[in-house]
Amino acid sequence: MSADETVTRASEPFRPPGMGDAEGPGTVHIRKLVKSFGARKVLRDINLDVACGEVCCVIGPSGSGKSTLMRCIDGLEDIDSGVLKVNGEHLGYVEEETHFRALKRRQLRQQRTQIGMVFQQFNLFPNMTALENVTVGQVLVKRMPKAEAKERALSLLARVGLHGHEQHYPAQLSGGQQQRVAIARSLALDPKVMLFDEPTSALDPELVGDVLDVMKQLAGEGMTMMVATHEMGFAREVGDSLIFMADGYIVERGDPREVLANPKEARTQQFLRKVL
Amino acid sequence: MDPTEKPRIHHRAAHEYVVWVIGLLLFAGIAYTLVTNPRYEWSVIGRYLVASTVLKGLLLTVWMTLLVMLIATLLGLVVAVMRSSRVLPVRILAIGYINLFRGTPVLVQLILWFNIAALYPNIRLGIPFTSIGTALNTNALISATTAAIIGLSLNEAAYMSEIVRGGFNSVPKGQLEAADSLGMSEGMKLRRVIIPQSMPTIIPATGNQLTSMLKETSLVSVLGVGDLLQSVQLISARNYQVIPLLLVASIWYLVVSILLSYPQAKIEAHYDKSRRSVQAGAQELITDPTLLERAT
Ligand SMILES: Nc1ncnc2c1ncn2[C@@H]1O[C@H](COP(=O)(O)OP(=O)(O)O)[C@@H](O)[C@H]1O
Ligand SMILES: [Mg+2]
Questions:
Q1: Ligand nearest to C-alpha A58
Q2: Does A113 touch chain B (CB under 8 A)?
Q3: B23 and B126 co-located in one domain
Q4: Is residue B288 part of a domain?
Q5: What is the pLDDT of residues B124-135, one digit of tens each?
Q6: Is the CB of A248 under 6 A from ligand 1?
Q7: B29 and B65 share a domain?
Q8: H helical segments located in chain A
Q9: Following DSSP, what letter does each residue of A118-182 receive, concatenated?
Q10: Could you read off the pLDDT of A178-227 as tens digits, one per residue?
Q11: Order of strands, edge to edge, in the sheet holding A241-246?
C-alpha cells in the first residue's frame, strides 16, 4: 500500500492555474498530516499541495497552527502521522514497505538546506555581522570557499537592498533591515522552497513595505513560497493560492482574491469580518 | 529676579555629613592601629614580601590557579555538553559527576587524591577485562602537586559545567531553530551560535570562579605542596612570626586577585560587541567605503 494512493482520495486540493510541477524540487505535498504537542492536537488533518513557483499564503487566527505547519515543513518539528513531502522527498524519513524509517540526522540536515525559513523574530545571529550571517551557512554547511561565499553574500545583501550595511551587527539594524538580512541568509543556501512565518508581524508599520517588496521580487523570480501573514493586500496581489486555517484544520483553500472577496465557509467569513 | 533664570540649588542632607564624619573616624582609627601597633611587624612583612621562597610559592599558586581553571573550563564544557545529550547514559554520567564532585568537600577530595594509591596501588592503562595495556605504579605517577591539580580541577569542573550549562540555556530557542533551519550540525551550532552567545553569561561567572580558585588553592598546603600559603607557613614555623607572614600571603592574594579581574573586564568587553549600539564614529567608518580603503 502506498501512502499516497490512500490519501489522494481524501481531498481534492485546489490547483491554481498556470503553476509548475506538482512533484519534485520546489513543491510541498501533504496528506493527513497530524501533529500534537503532548495530548494536544495542533494540526489535525492537513492536506495541501504547493506547486513549483506557487506563492501560497496562509491566514488564520492566532493559535490556529500556522507556525506549527511551517515548522513541520521546515523539519523543525517531527510529525505524528501522515505524509509530508518537500521538494519531492519525504521530509526526515524514507518510505519502507510497512513504515517510515527516520533518516540519519546528516541526511535531514541536507534536506533542510533545500528549505528556507524566515521567522517572525528574525533570529539573526547577534554575534555575527550582516555579512557573516549570510556567509555562515554557505561556508559551514555547503562547504563553499570563503571568498566565493562572501561574494555571493554581498550580491544577496545588495539584492535585498542592504548594500552598505554588510559590516553592521543585527543590533545596529532596524527590524526591517534585520528581516531582509534573514531572507538573504536563507536564500544563500539556494533553497527550492521558502517559508515565511509572519515575516512582517514584528515590524513597525513603516518598515513592512521594504520586506514585502523583497518577497514580491522573490515571488516574481519563481520561488515557491509559503507565507503566513496578516497582510491581506500582499496575499491578494502576490498570492497564487490562499489557505485559511482554524483549530488545526485547513478550513478553506482557493484563489486569494476569490477567498478574500467571497469566503465560502462561515468560519472564514467570521475571521475576515474581523480583520478586513 | 526673573524666576525663569533662578538657579536650582541642592543641599546635602544632614545625615550625609554624619556618615562622612563616622567614615573618616573609622578610616583614621584603622590607619592609626596599623601604624602604631608594633605587633604587625611591618619591617618583617616588608622583608618577606619579596623573599624568594615566598615569590616561588606565589608563582606556584598563580600557575596552579590558571592551569586548574583551564582544565576545569574545558572539562566543564564537555560535562555541560554531555549533560544535555540525547543519550540517557551520557546524561546520567554527567549528572552523577556533577553531584559527586559538588556534594563532597573539596578538602576531602584533595586528601583522597593524595592517598589514591591506598585505593589503587597500580593504575592499568588498557582495555578493561582484557590483558591489553600496561600497569603503572600510582605513587610514582601521582605526586602531591599532581594530586592537587587533579583534585581541584575535577571539583571545579563540576561547578564550571553548571555555569556553562546556564550560559547555554540563556541562548534563545529561536537562535537554535535558525541554525537548524540552515542545516547546521550540532558541532557547528555549538561553536558558532551557542558558545559565542553564552559567553556574556559565562565569562563573569568564570571570573568569579577564577578569583575564588586563587584562594582555594591554599587548601593544597595540607598536601605539602609549596604554594603561597605553605611557603609562608614554612617560614613562620622557623621564626614564629605567624601573623606578619600570614599578612604577607594575604597581601599577595589580594594583589593577584585584583590583577586577575582586569583581563576579565577586557574579555567581557570583547564579547559585548553583539550588543554594541550604533556609535557615530564606527558607523561612519563602516558606511563610507573611502574611509575603509584609507584605513587598510
Ligand atoms: N512547542 C509547543 N508546545 C506546546 N504547544 C505548542 C507549541 N507550539 C505551539 N503550540 C500550540 O499550538 C497551537 C498552534 O500554535 P501556532 O502554530 O503557533 O499557531 P499560529 O502560528 O497560527 O498562531 C497553539 O495553541 C500553541 O499554544
Ligand atoms: Mg504563529
A1: 1
A2: yes
A3: no
A4: yes
A5: 888 877 778 788
A6: no
A7: no
A8: 3-8, 66-73, 105-113, 130-140, 146-159, 175-187, 205-220, 232-238, 256-261, 266-275
A9: E-TT----TTS-HHHHHHHHHHHTS---HHHHHHHHHHHHHHTT-TT-TT--GGGS-HHHHHHHH
A10: 999 999 999 999 999 999 999 999 999 999 999 999 999 999 999 999 99
A11: A115-118, A193-197, A224-228, A55-59, A241-246, A249-254
- pTM of the complete model beyond 0.90: no
Indicate whether B92 and B226 sit together in one domain: yes
Indicate if the pLDDT at residue B180 is higher than 90. yes
Contact B184 A140 (CB under 8 A): yes
Lowest mean pLDDT among A48-57, A122-131, B275-284: B275-284
Residues B235, B107 share a domain: yes
H-helix or E-strand spanning residue A55: strand A55-59
On whether both B25 and B59 belong to a single domain, the answer is no
pLDDT digits 0-9 by tens, B99-119:
999 999 999 999 999 998 888
B33 with B159, same domain: the answer is no
**Same domain? B29 vs B153:** no
- For position A275, what pLDDT does the model report? 87
Contact B174 A121 (CB under 8 A): yes
Sheet holding A28-37, edge to edge: A40-50, A28-37, A81-86, A89-90
pLDDT at A14: 74
Note whether B192 contacts A125, CB cutoff 8 Å.
yes
CB < 8 Å to B197, chain A:
125-127
CA distance B42 to chain A (A): 51
Residue B92 and residue B201 in one domain: yes
pLDDT for residue A22:
78
Beta strand spans in chain B (E): 122-126, 133-137
A158 close contact with B: CB closer than 8 A:
no
Q: What distance in Å separates residue A137's CA from the closest CA in chain B?
A: 6
Backbone angles phi, psi at A129, to 5 degrees: -70, 170
Q: B200-225, pLDDT tens digit by residue?
A: 899 999 999 999 999 999 999 999 99
Residues 198 through 237 of chain A touching chain B, CB cutoff 8 Å: none
Ligand 1 in reach of A192 Cβ (< 6 A) = no
- A243-273: pLDDT as tens digits: 999 999 999 999 999 999 999 999 999 999 9
Contacts of residue B177 in chain A, CB cutoff 8 Å?
A: 71, 76, 117, 119, 123
Question: Would B148 be classed as within a structural domain?
Answer: yes
**CA-closest residue to ligand 1 atom 25:** A63
Instruction: Please check whether residue A69 is in contact with residue A46, taking contact to mean a CB–CB distance below 8 angstroms.
Output: yes
Which atom belonging to ligand 1 lies closest to the Cα atom of A37? 4
Chain A residues in contact with B287 by the CB 8 A cut-off are 164-165
In a domain? residue B6? no
Domain that holds residue B29: 13-49
- Which ligand 1 atom minimizes the distance to the CA of A66? 22
Asked if residue B203 is part of any domain, the answer here is: yes
* Interchain CB contact of A169 with B (< 8 Å): yes
The atom number, within ligand 1, closest to the CA of A197 reads 21
Residue B80 CA, ligand 1 centroid: distance in Å: 29
3 state SS of B138 = helix
Q: What is the CATH number of the domain that holds B227?
A: 1.10.3720.10
Domain count, chain B: 2
